[in-house]
Amino acid sequence: MxxxxxxxxxxxxxxxxxxxxxxxxxxISLWLIKEMLINWPYLGMIYxxxxxxxVSNNKLFSLAHxxxxxxxxxxxxxxxxxxxLLFFNLLGIGRQFTALLIFLFAExxxxxxxxxxxxxxxxxxxxxxxxxxxxxxxxFILFKRKQPxxxxxxxxxxxxxxxxxxxxxxxxxxxxxxxxIVKMQSPAWxxxxxxxxxxxxxxxxxxxxxxxxxxxxxxxxxxAWYTIxxxxxxxxxxxxxxxxTIMIIMGILLHTGIYFMMMIYGFxxxxxxxxxxxxxxxxxxxxxxxxxxxxTPAAV
Amino acid sequence: MxxxxxxxxxxxxxxxxxxxxxxxxxSLSKKDIxxxxxxxxxxxxxVFYQKWGFFKHTEPFNYRLYYEVxxxxxxxxxxxxxxxxxxxxxxxxxxxxNQRYLLLDVILxxxxxxxxxxxxxxxxxxxxxxxxxxxxxxxxxxxxxAIAAAAYHIDTAGNGCRLIIMQENxxxxxxxxxxxxxxAQPVFEGKYFNFR
Lengths: 300, 196
Prior knowledge:
heterodimer; A: mainly alpha; 16 helices; globular; B: alpha+beta; 2 domains
């Protein structure tokens, strides 16, 4: 009971993750800008009303009285507003309100073309939602707060910052764990057949020699089991201090492997970005001090 | 701490518990979700859509998307083009600067999967001349025919087209070290339509 009480008090008194939450805000904004830029020549194909892609209204749009065809007819305006908001979020202008608007825009774009959505975008939407409740504006912002908050409001801000970080970490763990359960139940994954099918096919042939690698049965089985063990272990052991760095290194290996071997880019980038949240402000401070970088909050 | 803030904190924590329990259960496969919470699955996914069981089913085949072009009046065969294999080859060759091909691949690939998972009767209706109940994925594949024809320099004037989805099986895991044997079979053959 005492432990839970202390945990509860820490939630609103100890600002543990605001540094990396600020990094994540900047990182996610840059990632979304990058996604927009690489898709720039094809935005008409993805969202335009005269695209060959036929999209019907989804349930959420119907509930919100939005018409997907009208949105697609005005996609350039929407993209323009979205770009401005991303730039604002990068600099911390408009704070949580901007983050919330970006979440709504990202959600809308995601549903305007259901075919192009990917795991990175799924997770990114949730990160944006959680960023809109937390305070990721203690670092890397253009304008400081003019007046400090009252002690009560400050505690509330710390609480929501810890909650936002906690939600992102928990969501990452759930994503891995549900993936592990699915794979663990599949004999094809246990025998390495699932990985063989991916490597021998032409859809995820990122290197041009994946087909040759598929001949090595031990390699296929090894990759399959590495993935299963990692996805099971990460949600359990990343919270244990001694195991955390190993889990993060395993994650970096898995995601960079998928990035280069399978050409699945966005998903890996977003998940890699979240890993820094598993380290506290203190740990980041001491790590950066080794490189003679001192971090001090820019805003109260 | 002031009472009002304490209530906000406790209220938030109370809200988060069912949210994350739901997130966990609804990100599992449908068969793993407890039956008593199943009615909440669709409303939850409408708002918080997510799917994490990637590569749940992988199969030892590639899909191929063919467009068969023929003269609208005489029915004479004009050309047959396959688009998916070329897109994927280019995606591999141009990686990591291959966004155009990745986008095309993901759009066409998902539409093919959707078409193959749709009730054939609904597809039949979608292809009828009245075509009141349009099937989005099938329409998308049909719409792409004109783009493919332009890329392959095939004249669309006076010609019609139909799409064929082939499943091209390659050696399975147990026969991976045998000489490659590719077996192709059509899994969907559409009706003729005019280029759009």
